[in-house]
Structures are given as C-alpha cells and as structure tokens.
C-alpha cells in the first residue's frame, strides 16, 4: 500500500477502546504477528521469511496478555531475512540467521515505509518510503541511501529460538519522523 501523504501522523492507529499495553513500544519477549495481508494476526516465524526479501510487516504482541501493540502506528515493524554475507559488520552482529528488524516508520515525515524496490542509486533492493522517496539499506543498519530522510530507521533486536521470533530489546534509535507531513 503506497501513500503519497503522511497518513495518520498521530500516534494512534485507530480510535476507540484499546486494551492496556496496546500502544506501548515493543518489549523484550514480545512475539511478532503479521500486521497486514491474508495472515494478519498470525505469528511470524523464521519459516515465513525468504532470504533476500521482501520484508514482512508486523506488530509486536505481548505473549502474556496476547495484546497486539497496534494502537500506535509507531510500533509497526519491518522484518527481513538477508544473506549474512551481505550485511555490514554491525548489522550482522545483531542479525539472527540473517533476520533483522526495523521500525516501519520513515524518519522524514513519519510515513509508513511500504516498498521493497531497486534503489535509485544502486542495483540493490532497498526499503523505500513512497511519500518523498527516501531509501534505506537494511544491510547497513537501514542507513539512508537516497532522499530527504535525515537518519536511519530505528533497529529492533530480535531473538530466534526453535524457529520462533521474538523481540530481544528496545528500539535502537529514534522512531518516527522529524518533519511535518
Ligand atoms: S515521509 Fe518518508 S520520505 Fe518523507
């Protein structure tokens, strides 16, 4: 789903009664569930990821209360599996079996990063925000490779046990945009 404007720039994903914890940031031990598509709500496992992408979009889910933390759009996560040999040293150190995760919220004006396309400035596929065409390279800590975004996407450490993915710590870096849409 591409957007041309910053939709829903408030931190609320939807109005109404949200269960406690649903707008809290991802926490250590959280599980991950698909945030869109046919499998929305289903647990994401390592088997759901193909080496080389595309990324999956996910929400964190509290394993104790089963609350999906979807009440803040800032909680949406991109999960991708890449060949570890393609990752830079820092990114490889954080990856689990080549799997890495980032905030899905663009650091420019806070649009969702929706595309996985060939970069405008290279021959590799990158995360792309369609609002103003910023591109982020997941192999290099989601650093900005094109466009107006001022900084990389926040990274989310993951853990992998028996094929199950979970959150291993807090977001590293600031989540969300710095400019008005
Ligand atoms: S909000 Fe992503 S490039 Fe502007």
Automatic annotation (TrEMBL):
Residues 14-28 have a biased composition (Basic and acidic residues). Coiled coil: none annotated. Residues 94-167 form the Rieske domain. InterPro entries: Rieske_2Fe-2S (IPR017941), Rieske_2Fe-2S_sf (IPR036922), Rieske_Fe-S_prot (IPR014349), Rieske_Fe-S_prot_C (IPR005805). Pfam families: Rieske. The keyword Metal-binding applies. Its cofactor is [2Fe-2S] cluster. Residues 1-29 are annotated as: Disordered. Keywords: 2Fe-2S, Disulfide bond, Iron, Iron-sulfur, Metal-binding. PANTHER family: CYTOCHROME B-C1 COMPLEX SUBUNIT RIESKE, MITOCHONDRIAL. This is Rieske iron-sulfur protein. It comes from Bradyrhizobium yuanmingense. The lineage of its organism: Bacteria, Pseudomonadati, Pseudomonadota, Alphaproteobacteria, Hyphomicrobiales.
């Amino acid at each position: 789903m591409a957007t041309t404007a910053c939709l829903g720039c408030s931190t609320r994903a939807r109005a109404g009664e949200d269960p406690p914890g649903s707008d809290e940031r991802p926490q250590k031990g959280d599980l991950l569930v698909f945030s869109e598509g046919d499998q929305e709500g289903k647990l994401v496992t390592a088997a759901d990821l193909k080496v080389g992408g595309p990324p999956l979009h996910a929400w964190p889910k509290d394993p104790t209360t089963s609350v999906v933390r979807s009440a803040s759009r800032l909680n949406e996560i991109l999960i991708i599996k890449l060949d570890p040999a393609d990752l830079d040293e820092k990114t490889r150190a954080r990856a689990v079996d080549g799997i890495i995760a980032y905030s899905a919220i663009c650091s420019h004006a806070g649009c969702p990063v929706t595309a996985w396309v060939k970069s405008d400035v290279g021959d590799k596929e990158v995360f792309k925000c369609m609002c103003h065409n910023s591109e982020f390279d997941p192999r290099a800590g989601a650093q900005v490779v094109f466009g107006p975004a001022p900084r990389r996407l926040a990274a989310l450490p993951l853990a992998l046990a028996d094929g199950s993915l979970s959150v291993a710590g807090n977001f590293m870096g600031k989540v969300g945009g710095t400019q008005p849409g």
